[in-house]
Amino acid sequence: MSASWKQLFFQILLLLVSCRHINTKTPGPTPPPLIPIDQLPTDVRSVVLKGESHTEKVELLNPVNLALECTWTGNQDKLPNITGLWRKNGEEVQNSSQTVLLENDQYNLKRVFSIVNEENLGSYTCEFGSKAKIDFVLAAPQIGEVRDKPIVSYVGDSVVITCKMEDTKPQPSTWNWYRANGTDKEQISTAQEPLRYEIKSEERNTKLVVHSLVEADGGLYYCGAVYAISTSMSHVKLKVINFHEPLKPFIAIVIEVIVLVAIILLYEKSQSKKNSAAGENGTTDQTNTLTQGESNGPEESSSMRQRKV
Amino acid sequence: MSPAPADELCRKPLDGGWGWMVVVGAHISIGFAYSTPKALSIFYKEIQENLGASSSEIAWISSIMLAAMYAGGPVSSMLVTRFGSRPIVIAGGLMCGVSMVTASFGNSMVYLYLCIGVIGGCGLSLNLNASLTIISKYFLVKRPLANGLAMAGSPVFLCLLAPVNQYLLQIYGWRGSLLILGGLMLNCCVAGALMRPVIAPCKTSNCEPQKKLKEQPNDSHTKLKEGCMKNAKSFLDLTFFKDRGFVIYLIGSIMFIFGAYAPIVFLSAYAIRQGVEEFSAAYLLTIMGFVDMFVRPATGLIASSKWVRPRIQFFFSFAMVFTGTVHLLCPLFESYTFLVTYAVFFGVGFGMVFALIFECLMDLMGNERFPSAVGLVTIIECFPMLLGPPTAGLLVDIFGDYKYLFFMCGSVILSGGLFLFVMNIYNYHMLEKEKPGMDREKKQINVESQAHLTASEVEMKRNPEAEMERSEPEAKEANGVQREPQPENAETPD
Hints:
Chain A has helices spanning 2-23, 244-278, 285-296, 301-308; strands spanning 42-49, 53-59, 64-72, 81-88, 91-92, 98-101, 107-115, 122-128, 132-139, 151-154, 159-164, 174-181, 184-187, 197-201, 205-210, 219-226, 231-241. By secondary structure, chain A is α+β, with helices and mostly antiparallel strands. Among the domains of chain A are: 37-139, Immunoglobulins (Immunoglobulin-like, Sandwich); 151-241, Sandwich (Immunoglobulin-like), CATH 2.60.40. In chain A, the strands form four sheets. In chain A, strands 2, 4, 5, 6, 8 and 9 form a six-stranded mixed β-sheet that branches. In chain A, strands 10-17-16-12-13 form a five-stranded mixed β-sheet, with no helix packed on it. In chain A, a hairpin with a 2-residue loop joins strand 12 and strand 13. Chain B is mostly helical. Chain B has a single domain (11-197, 235-434), classed as Growth Hormone, Chain: A. In chain B, 82% of the residues lie in helices and 0% in strands. Chain B has helices spanning 5-10, 18-39, 44-51, 55-71, 73-83, 85-103, 109-138, 143-151, 153-185, 187-194, 210-215, 218-230, 244-273, 278-304, 312-329, 336-399, 403-459, 464-483, 486-491. Chain B is globular. Classes of the chains: A alpha+beta, B mainly alpha.
């Protein structure tokens, strides 16, 4: 009996050890599952060109095998064959140069590109000789509403920076915030400084709240809309100023008001002193009209004549 | 209508000289009063983002400010009657400045409602009422021109404040901008300093003329003043509703105010709906404001002319009919050029009506009753002003088309203008009928008031207050009676 107990004990021990082994992997960001290229979905974009050039914007969310088709109606020469070429970001794609025949009064170029990550995005151009070309601009959805003016806030205050993705564009899977650090961007993590930073993200918009601002907090802040294929960035500039800055013009204006009021009241006092010095039949407007009015008093018709003037 | 002859016993309005400086002061004061609620909307987006408020929450700031400005009318007219214009405008300027400065430290919407809305609005209402009153004290012959120049402050300051606010917002953010705006509003105190009080507060024919006052010992002088002032104690004087001319004017102006502001609020949105780009749509309002700036003094000049002055009520109703017609014609054509033309004519109509709106009330009420009348009118105008734009917005929501908004506003204003025109004809007709009776009564009361003057001189030292209270209603009635037949006298050729 003790032998079977020992066996059981050893089995359990083995089990535990092997389990522990499995659990010692440190949890970290899991890399995106690598989908083999032939298992990517396929998409087609085709453009028919009638003139000399055209630009087509292609919005991509996920990795895809993208087939780009170019059709050119040709020019007046109508050469029977022409050299076709593909370029990526201006540089010729290797082994893409080919001879294109005139079929049905058209020239056709077609190629399939695997767009997997951010490096694959960019501008793809199909060229017909050096006579016509079509640009396909491949990009993740860009954040349209970019705030061009800086947000101004004060030392000790808190500021809210927002980023929004339009309703017409697909929503990102998540949002990230970065701070400019020299030429790099450093991701802002609320876990590290929970008292200072707060990120509130909904589907289409995100807010970064920075509390207890200091002047060093000023600078560029980037919000990134994360899609499977890449992250689109938009930036907002934050300016942190001291409260003394608006106080200076304010005090200047207050001083101006006090000076003007003093001038007006002193002028009035000097006028009235002049008049009281000159005696009762003074030259002030009021007393003048007063005496005038009194002499006109019994004549009511004078008031009516005013109206008819 | 000219003020009652009883006023003439005391003083004749200046119609020039220092009066023009007073017009400058009124221009500044009225300018801030009308343009601040609109100019503040430039800060709203920033405040919304910072404090996390919704669009409707933030729009309440302007609404509360406008409501406080209009509703504070009766209180402000009572204060103006008691203390004169200068201290009230200075106090109003200080209140506005303080309200903006305290608002710059705000962290919640309720705080902003209180500071900007309530305190700021009350400060502005003090400014508005006092400025209008002092114009009526300084001008008679050129009063329409003075009114036109003073009311032109509204578009001028709007055109000035809008870019200034934008600039301040970029440099200092919304807090710093509110602080500096508060400083700018302190300039209303400068405007107040310009409003030199007219000496001889001769309220009624039974108040002692200035000359005799000087001979009296000091204590009875002050007692006399108190006696005069106490007559203005009731600030909500409902006897105005017995005055036919007042009621007609009130109905007409309610109808105008109801339809006046909605087209301004929705013009940009309508233009964008027609396919105009955003910048050009905003430009339409600028055009309107620019035209408004010049039309107001021009209207004042025209109204001062001898042909128009006696018929100023009809000119006012013409201006309203014109504005209503312009609104009705707006949805008919849909090109941008037409919208620009519409904006120009809208500016003309709007400017004409606003240049005349207070002048006509002064004309009807005379100097004596104008402060209380304008307080009553503004508090009643509060309701159509607050109801107009939301009703128009509701129409847009229900029908999904902006043209019904313009039809509604145009028809309300047009019918208001026609109503005024017809009812004024009726009013003058009735007054002409009543005139022979009035003339007889007038002569009687004049004799009586002269007797009272001499009698009150004697009794002055003994019991000034009782004297004032007793003779006041009679004098008031005399003033009212004497005032009404004036338009008839003015219209009959010399």
